[in-house]
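Hi, here's the filled form for the chain we discussed.

Project: internal
Contact: R.S.
Residues: 417
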Amino acid sequence: MSQPAFDPSGFLSEFYISFWIPTAVLTAALVIKLPTIIRLWRDPLLRSVGGLLLLACAVFVFCTPSTIHRVNRLTGVPNISAPWCYSLITAMSAAGLLLIVTWRNGLSDRSAATRRAVRRVVSVYAGVIVALWVLFLLADAPVERVRDLDTYYAGTPFMREEILLYLFAHAAACLIASRLIWNWAHSEGLDAWLRWGLRLLGAGYGLNLVFSGAKLTAVGARWTGHDLDWLSTDLAPPVASVTAILVATGFILPHAGQYLHDRWLVRRAHRELRPLYRLMRTASGDSVPFMLRATPELRLTRRETFVRDVLLPLARYLDADLDRRAYDAALALGHPPERARALASAVAILDAIDSKRRTPDPAEPATGTDPTSLLRDIAPISRALRRPEEIEAVRAAAGARVSPGTPVGAGPDPRPE
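And the returned structure, exactly as it came back:
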């Protein structure tokens, strides 16, 4: 019993990706970038990014079969969407090249070579768009085709040249852009988020070559009497969708990734200060005003300010001799110098709090310890307070005498601030 022939078009139809999915992703990328583009409109790089994203959105809106049919019906011209969609794709290709030229040469580069490259890209692709419309006016394409126009009119005079022109212009732009992006992504000194963004952009532009190759192969098959229309109608559209998602993500990732990373660092710094903050709350007995809608940055600043404000008057109770002995003891216990410094400072602060409790108004400071390092290194000291057993070991080795009840370690914040 013979096996049924493999149907690639049916197989690919199961993996159909709606054009509205990449449109939504591209729109999200444009919305994220738009405030910066408007604020820094004179920046040619941002203008290029905005133009590329806007044109990419337009491509996926106007190249959907339903929109193609609607435009044809509204204008009363069968297949008028063809030169319009081809023009959008060509303009998007040009915008991608302009972006790479501007981005690669840097914002400060206003050389004659850069200006010539920009003018060359604009003039060549503007000429291609004009030629697309002239060829359409010369062609005879009376039958509306919303999905398979490229292969249906592959042998029609002037339409044939129009189809080849837009495909070759698109392929050339993607080939140049992907090569430049991949070279740049492997250069030194790039931020990790930017590097990954470039890799996604490079993958997107590289995959665009599959789109152009599938279309050209299907068109060429028509010339030789073969039917490979599924390459154009079933393979190329999902490839274009995946390409758009990769490109949009490549633009989003450096911005969103750096933003989320910065937010994470702020929240981590705020959380790391919790032990020292609690200790200073106990030592001062003061209340801190609570702001219901305070931003993470403001909460971190308020916490740092409060800790330093309480530490500063504690300087008169700090014992420099105990600080040195605690540092030597921490080193002897096997802690690295940075960790030993934090543990010694924690022991000195706990001793100062105990001394303040026993003698609220000393006639003279303990031994004149400089609080500069304490005010600077509040984060390592706070991390050291999370390990009370290590502090107790350093205390014992340094011979520190601390009254019972002196708080050590971390617990939950009594209040959010």
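Let me know if anything looks off before we file it.
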